[in-house]
Design goal:
single chain; about 260 residues; mainly beta; two-stranded antiparallel ribbon
């Protein structure tokens, strides 16, 4: 039986033009999550690249908010090499481009030289919130282990806008490479640690796929790197239960008004 993620990123079409339906199951206050929209686009690109199954990098720019309903994804393969394929795509709704993305796909075989210069974060002192504690629809699609009070948004500001958490799909879907943009964007923004509560729209999100996740549960480390003139830069790392760094991301967002 298909998972919620698979159903909600399914497209129909061929030859670079696909029809999709954006659902409200991955929304924040009625607005579809940016990571979900990027994952939808990345999965659609994968339909054009059966010989390059793994996402290596994807950069998306969010031009306007999307809404639940039908949409079109247009894909252009720019290069189809032996080990690397590069594409660009755009998600269109109501005649307007909502998301534009560049992506490169390849094959992560795990046989090349590998070194990690980052340490997997520890998850001590984290708790599993109630399944319905998350304030938005997207939070019900996941199960979390987080620091106490992260989803309550009623807390004293801290000087360090960062946190560690764990996440998996609520229905048991095994994380796939095309789902990485959604997974890195599945948490409250680090702005909440500064007492800035509200919708923090993403302007740009870049995701690097480093390995195929080998477990349902992933451990995340999120850190704000800068806050300048109302724009914040946030990084996320995702680790699987084998201790492998499977994804890194950086996004540029706007602090809540």
């Amino acid at each position: 039986m298909p998972s919620e993620y698979e159903l909600d990123t399914e497209v129909v079409g061929s030859d670079g033009r696909y029809q999709a339906r954006i659902t409200d199951r991955w929304s924040i206050a009625g607005r579809p999550n940016g990571g979900y929209l990027q994952a939808l686009v990345v999965r659609t690109i994968g339909s054009e690249l059966p010989t390059h199954p793994d996402l290596l990098t994807s950069t998306a720019h969010f031009l306007a908010p999307a809404s639940p309903g039908p949409a079109t994804v247009e894909v252009e393969v720019l290069k189809r090499g032996r080990s690397l394929a590069s594409s660009r795509a755009q998600l269109i709704q109501d005649g307007q481009v909502k998301v534009t993305a560049l992506a490169s796909h390849g094959t992560l075989q795990g046989s090349g030289r590998t070194q990690s210069f980052a340490e997997m974060p520890t998850v001590r002192h984290l708790v599993a919130p109630a399944d319905d504690e998350g304030p938005f629809e997207i939070n019900r699609r996941f199960r979390y282990v987080v620091e106490p009070g992260l989803f309550q948004f009623e807390r004293e500001p801290t000087e360090e806008p960062s946190f560690v958490a764990m996440v998996r799909f609520a229905d048991g879907h095994r994380p796939s490479g095309d789902a990485l943009p959604l997974l890195v964007d599945a948490f409250p923004p680090t702005t909440v640690k500064l007492g800035l509560v509200g919708w923090a729209p993403t302007l740009e999100l870049t995701v690097h796929g480093l390995a195929r996740p080998s477990s349902q549960w992933l451990t995340a480390r999120l850190r704000m790197r800068s806050l300048v003139d109302g724009l914040f830069s946030e990084e996320c790392e995702l680790w699987d239960e084998a201790g492998r760094l499977v994804a890194q991301s950086r996004q540029l967002g706007m602090v809540p008004a």
